[in-house]
Amino acid sequence: MTRGKRTKTRALEVRLLREGIIESVHSAQAVVCDDRGRMLYVAGNPETSTFIRSALKPFQALAVTTTGTLERYNLTDRDLAIMCGSHHSTMEQVRQVFNILWRCDVDPSALQCPIPPGKESSLQHNCSGKHAGMLAVCQQRQWLLKTYLEYNHPVQKLILSQVAELLQMPEQELILAHDDCNAPTYFLQLRQMALLYALLSSGNNLAMERIVRAMISHP
User: What does pTM read for this prediction?
Assistant: First the structure.
């Protein structure tokens, strides 16, 4: 890992040992940057691109913290935390997602994440909290529920605009695809992902600070 360079460096190696014997070696790339986008540590190629997938959840939750949705439905930091994470579908977690929807007067059948194999409801999908957050925003803004995962739906356009603003790039340059849970996700460079998380942890944005506090309090 190299400090302060913006060029490619050697990737990290993660070695799996079994009783002291190397069983397998895995290559990993990493970037650490500050909230101005200055790269502090680089391993591998900082411009390597991949889908951010579930790591996008805290930034999708910005739609909840910036629209008055939390206050409108008296949602708690615990509710916000489950919107930001991939849960294990415990009874407590499923009940919590249900309660978010109940307080927003949204039927659980509105969830469009898949029903996991061997399960009975979309509430049991590990992304159901994120989806409940999107539906809560839609309900608060009186946006159509049944199309909330379409790229041109107002809630997805809101999320897109907020992420583009954080990255200081035109919205049309963000590349989208649907994640396994059916929600849109973005194809980003590692340095862009690092910038998002540097901004999240900077303490310079009240809406993001609320998200950080929720995640730390309810991991």
Answer: 0.91
